[in-house]
What does this fold into?
Amino acid sequence: MDFFFQLPLWIQGAVKGLAVIAVLFPLAAACSMAERKISAWIQGRPGPNRTVVPWLAGIPIIIPFLQRLGVFQLAADGGKFVFKEDVVPGHVNKLYFIAAPILAMIPALSTITIVPFGAYFDSAGQLVPLVLANVDIGLLAVLAISSLGVYSVILAGWASNSKYPFLGSIRASAQLISYELSMTLSVLPVFLWVNAPGGQGTLSLFAVVQAQSGTGFFNGLWLGIWMPVSAFIFLVALFAETNRQPFDMAESEADLVGGFHTEYGAFKWSLFFVAEYAHMIVGSGVFTLLFLGGWNPLPWIPLTRVVHGLSHWISFAGHPLFMGVLGVLIFLGKVGFFIFFFMWIRWTLPRFRYDQIMKLGWQKLLPLAIGNLVFYALLIALIQK
Amino acid sequence: MAVIPVSRKPLTFAERTYIPQILGGLRITFARMIKPAETMEYPEQRPEIPKNYRGVPTLVKDPNGREKCVSCQLCEFVCPPKAIRITPGEIAPDSPTAHVEKAPQAFDIDMLRCIYCGLCQEVCPEEAIFLQNQYSMTGLTRAEMVNHKDRLYELGGTLPDQHHKWDKKKAAEEHGSAAH
It folds into this structure.
């Protein structure tokens, strides 16, 4: 541990960054298998359950269980995407065609740096967040970077030089821009509430979680309960921003073949795929932090109190590592539920029509978000007077 | 035709928000998810084949083990895709069924041509060819997909015989019409 902290700062940063990417990338890939299994269960099928590594096939119980879960199928698919012939069609603009999937990955993997996923007490008794960059700009950076993802969609659709990808990218980019407004407006009440008047203002996500991890009535209340309309608007906009059903305009395979990635195949296509799931994971994480109390197990029962209580019973519970791991596990559990919720919605609802999406975004969600902002601004002014 | 005017109720506020319907849908899909899958996992689990299923055509023997085909070639003649090829042969004179006189020397059914119409079964005067419940025919070469006589008997096996036509015929020859 000491050895690590003696390394130069940039090496520490690089190691932490690579560690988070090494978790996020396979997690995003695993989501694709989860998607296939959940869709199968919802449709009364077993889903992928045959693939197995031949020299592991003899091991009883555990290997058949993993085989039924399709874990090896995931590895086989990943390998296939890497070794498959990577076709670049003759009619595309090669530079932008190749740049688009790379541009899709950059914001998807960058936003994770701002998202805290746990906290521990350091030796000085100070609560330290587990995050790559605990910056005050926080949520603003997440929103700003993740909205860069729209460039990859536009670029992919345009560089493909083909009508369906073009239509798909136009639709998707219009949708992404429309729902960003409601999304931003829906989180403003949260920060009005977190930043007490007179104090130092912050947009940090860690500060939001801190505001939800007290034990008093308002202090320990999760913001999802305190501001349900905000949470609802944020969730709907999140579905739209990650291009998930029922806001699946980017893909619309029924009317647009495959949307903006129609002309893509092999590894480049899989990059788009992983980027979509990485967006989902980060989006679920941000939702959890803003509205579901981050790494706190229950409303009014913060993680610090649980660890404090446990340390009377178990000797190692006071160790910072225990608190960090417990916090990360609780956080990942909530994120996992939201990823399941994304998939659950996908296999339940049909896709909206394009005009319905625009109508919902501009005529319903946006006025609702503005009304919600005004309501909470007045209410918070009354409470914090 | 009478025109029935149907009054359409205006949607309530809750319905216009979509939310109750979405929650109802989520409930249905979740209930479906925790039920066991409907799928039959084919090679391990096989469907129950209904009676009178028209599968691969096979040759059968009677309960005494006599091959029933007398190589009359009616099936070869009737077969619409010309999948059947029969080479007629004699039965050895010292055989207990020598009075049947003929049996196929070779009997080939090309399963790449067969259309499973069942006309061969219908036309057979000896009830010797049946389309049974074998439904999966695979092979790596064209030659593998031709069922020869021994394979046809192996697939067909023995089926019960209600008539024992040739035994009765032999008995009638030996004992006169009293045997009937």
